């Protein structure tokens, strides 16, 4: 088993006033040659957008972009005609493919919106762009690792991406122990602690810490406090 630990306070940080963002991997003005990606996981941003503010219309291509809100209301619009609001419990996917133009803004003027923006490199290029959004109840994540992202063509229940990748969310009670069996033994898993404290394969993690694990087929997980965790199983190279 090989591991790489990214403590929360080692992340890149940019505060633009309207946007306060922490970067697990190199992004925009933050560059660390040791933290470019974990396999095909390219971006993991922890974003807070001020009331009434947002990202103006901008393009992407050949990237799988996943957004997971933790509080507030994020309004999405794009040139495919989608206009949606995503909230805590929702998972949004944009498969950019040949190209998409989109924007996001905080729907509320009186409170911030907080969300994770995650980019995954696709396993093919120049496919037709698509948008998907699903809601997942907290009860379905309680003491369980619920699949919320899965490869196109599977029936695992997540939003479907062009990659051999699975994301799982869990809200685990103190003392709860479980394991995660990799879907593909050649994949790695990047674990990110949204809230709380957890031990994974005997490594202790705290709020907003990240841990990349390769060369294993199973993760042993124990909640040291009430914990919310995101597991991202992705292909290499690592």
Characterise the protein shown here:
It is a single chain. With 238 residues, the chain is an all-beta fold. The chain has one domain: Sandwich (Jelly Rolls). The chain has one helix at residues 138-141; strands at 2-6, 12-15, 19-23, 41-49, 54-60, 64-71, 73-78, 83-87, 90-95, 100-106, 113-120, 130-135, 146-151, 159-161, 166-172, 177-181, 188-195, 198-200, 203-205, 210-214, 218-223, 227-234. It has a 7-stranded mixed sheet with strand order 1-20-17-22-15-13-14. A 7-stranded antiparallel sheet has the order 2-3-4-11-6-9-12, with no helix packed on it. Strands 5-10-7-8 form a 4-stranded antiparallel sheet, with no helix packed on it. A hairpin with a 2-residue loop joins strand 18 and strand 19 (203-205). The longest helix is centred in the middle third of the chain and has 4 residues, at 138-141. The mean pLDDT is 97.
List keywords for this structure.
238 residues; mainly beta; Jelly Rolls; seven-stranded mixed beta sheet; seven-stranded antiparallel beta sheet; 2% helix
Provide a brief overview of the structure.
The chain is mainly beta and 238 residues long. The chain is 2% helix and 55% strand.
Which strand order do you get reading across the main beta sheet? 1-20-17-22-15-13-14
Termini distance?
13 Å
The CATH architecture can be named as Sandwich
Can you say what the CATH homologous superfamily is?
Jelly Rolls
Unreliable spans: none
